[in-house]
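pinning this so it doesn't scroll away 📌
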Amino acid sequence: QVQLMESGGGLVQPGGSLRLSCAANVSVTTFKTMAWYRQAPGKQREWVATISFTRITAYADSVKGRYTISRDNPENTMYLQMNDLKPEDTAVYYCKALTLADRDYWGQGTQVTVSS
């Protein structure tokens, strides 16, 4: 059973930075893609960024140029470096992994709050 665990969330001032981690209990090389999503209060969950097995990345327009998704294979961990954070980035951030069998797994989420 694949398990994902996010960490690194917290309270940060506007303009600040955070790095989120998503640790897997299996090798991340077994996933076709890994991604970050977020859900703000009262809103639907939205896609943030994706990294493929071949490390091709894609970003939502709202975070492009500010966020960087990466993957550390030996550590079985995916990261999301978030810079120049804005109040509208406040949300619970979730990681998702898509296996070779096209099955999705989700983490439990980590809260990011951007406020002065």
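📌 and the second one:
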Amino acid sequence: VQLQASGGGLVQPGGSLRLSCAASGSIFRRALMGWYRQAPGKERDLVATINSGGAANYADFVKGRFTISRDNAEETVFLQMNSLQPEDTAIYYCNLRVPLLGYEYWGQGTQVTVSS
């Protein structure tokens, strides 16, 4: 399984970005997909997850601003990020897990920088 993340960039405070993560392989439909982020000098934090049925969970610090979604036909997971703030600056990683099979994979990360 390979995960290819894209969509990061530089945006002003209050702006929006949409991240995408395309997966290769046949297990996407069964997978729990997630987005994590890691700021410089900090640990990697969970941002949001979405299960195979489309149920989503969010970290408190992004509730109401970020939306995770998935397209099983395209084997892609998205993260729509609105009302971005400087504290959202981080490398964002996508994650694929199939707990029953013991699978876990990480994408390469995409940089999001929020600055005026």
